[in-house]
Each structure stands twice: as C-alpha cells, then as structure tokens.
Amino acid sequence: MRHRFLKENTIENAFKAICFLSILLPLVLIVVLIGDAVIDGWSRLSLDFLTGFPSRKPELAGFLPALVGSFYLMLLTSAIAIPLGLGAAIYLEEYAKPGFLTSLIEINISNLAGVPSIIYGLLGLELFVRMSHMGRSLLAGACTLALLLLPMVIMVSRESLRVVPNSLREAGFALGADQWQTIWKIILPMSIPGALTGIILSVARAIGETAPLITIGALTYVAFLPDSIHSAFTAMPIQIFNWISRPQTAFQTNAAAGIVVLLFLMLFFNALAIWLRARLQRKVYW
Q1: How far is C-alpha 53 from the chain's CA centre?
Q2: Ramachandran quadrant class, 165 (left: phi over 0; alpha: psi -120 to 50; beta: rest)
C-alpha cells in the first residue's frame, strides 16, 4: 500500500512539474522576444518616430501614417462588426427557435472562427475591392477585418447572453415587460461586461493582422494621412512588414521599434478590457 501511495505521489508531482513547465516556457519565450524587440528598437523610440512620415532614409522614417491608418481601421471595423455581431448573437440566443436552420448557422459560425485570416483577405479582395468597387481603401480594409471579427464577436456575445439566469427573464415577463424590453433593460446590462471584454480582445487581435490587409492591397509606403473612408491607407503590421523586408540594419531597427509600439497598444487594449469588465460588473451587481 505504501509503495502504491509513493508511486501515485511521484506521478502527481511529475504531472505538476510538466504543467508548470508548460506555463513557464511560453512565458519565458514571450519575455525573451519582447525584450529582444525593446533592446533592438529602443534607440528609435521617440516623438519624432511616432509623428514622422516614412522615408527612404531609415534614420528619418516615421510611423505616423501607420498609426493613424490602424486607428481609423479599427474604428471602422468596430463600427461594422460590433453592431452586426451583437445583433446576430441576440437573435440566435433570444429569438431563434431550435431547428435545422439555426443549427446550421451555429455550426458555420463556429467553423468560420477557425478559418485562416488569409482566406478572409481573399474574400475581401473579391467581394469588396473588385465586386463592390471600393478599391484598396480604408472601407474595404475595415469590411474585410469585420468579416474576420464577426464569428468571434457573435460567439463571445452569445456566451455572455447565455450566462444570464433565466429567472431574470421570467421576472421581467412577470412585471409586464415584453421580450425586447426584457432584453434591453435586463439581459444586455448583465451580459455587457463579458461581451465587451471579448470584443475588445478580438479587436486587439485584429490590430496585428497582416495577411488580410496585404491580400486586399494595403500600401506598404504611404507618405500621407487618410482623409476619408475611400482613401488609400497603411497599417502598423504592413509598415513593420515593409521595414523588416529591407536589407539595411537601420530599417530592422525601425521594425523593432514598430513592433514595440504595436505590442504596447495590444497590451493596452487587454488592460482596458480587464478594467472595463471589472468596472461594469461592479455597476451591474451593485
């Protein structure tokens, strides 16, 4: 009996050690990669770099058009994807009746969430750039990224709606509210913290997407700021890709500095999601 106990205890400790290493190794790798980017790009991180325009001289090259392009791109993408995704989630969770069509839609949404981003880029190229005659514009890029985000927004929003207790719905109906009033006044306020967190994290992921933007033809060298939704544009991943593909060492330093800025924005969005979730949960429950 004692021998068996010692054997089980050894197996358990070994399993704990494997699990700990599974957590530790990716964290160490991330820290090393981020540290390497910060060390390589630190010399170029300055106000001039953030407010300057691209140049063929690496020491004069700036990041402003990529920053502004990504900002506008995320605003347009969010304006398209969030209302559509939230509306689709409300319909599927609150209004749609179980059946073959509903099951087919749910399966397709789940499958679309796992489709490689390059496929969305090809779809956006054909559907928005060519068929809809949007050209290689901000609007075409936003519509393409909105397609990429929609499955994730729908799934996250549905999960948040699903965790609201049915007793709250029944209480709303008992007080004389119709279904929409119950959704608007009770269910949405309860589900917004979880849904908003997932949506912000999805948008943060979209900031770093390169393949769809390259596919639809986003510019790699832009010496101007976009002035409308029909303007040509670039984005941070595209500008970084352009610099890192250059053979000069100075451009590699610029790319490292751009990576640091992109990582900072992604970490900021993640922190914002955590803060908003905690704040909204306090408002809901208190």
Answers
A1: 26
A2: beta
Can you give the CATH number for the domain in which 199 is found? Answer: 1.10.3720.10
pLDDT (tens digit, 9 = 90+) per residue, 6-30?
566 777 778 888 888 888 888 888 8
Cα–Cα distance, 139 to 231 (Å, whole number): 8
Print the SS3 string covering 93-156.
Answer: HHHCCCCHHHHHHHHHHHHHCCCCHHHHHHHHHHHHHHHCCCCCCHHHHHHHHHHHHHHHHHHH
Distance CA 207, CA 74 (A): 7
Q: How many CB atoms are located within 10 Å of the residue 10 CB?
A: 10
Q: Are 158 and 92 in contact (CB under 8 A)?
A: yes
Number of domains in the chain: 2
Give pLDDT tens digits for 94-144. 888 888 888 888 888 888 878 888 888 888 888 888 888 888 888 888 899
> CA 110 to CA 284: how far, in whole Å?
29
Contact in structure between 55 and 44 (CB atoms under 8 Å): no
Residue with tokens 């060390």: 39
DSSP state of 91: I
Collect the ranges in the chain with pLDDT lower than 70. Answer: 1-8, 220, 281-286
- Domain residues for the domain of 9 are 2-44
Contact, 117 vs 207, CB < 8 A?
no
Asked whether residue 59 falls in the same domain as residue 38, the answer is no
Same domain, 126 and 172: yes
Report which residue type is found at 104: L
Same domain, 30 and 54: no
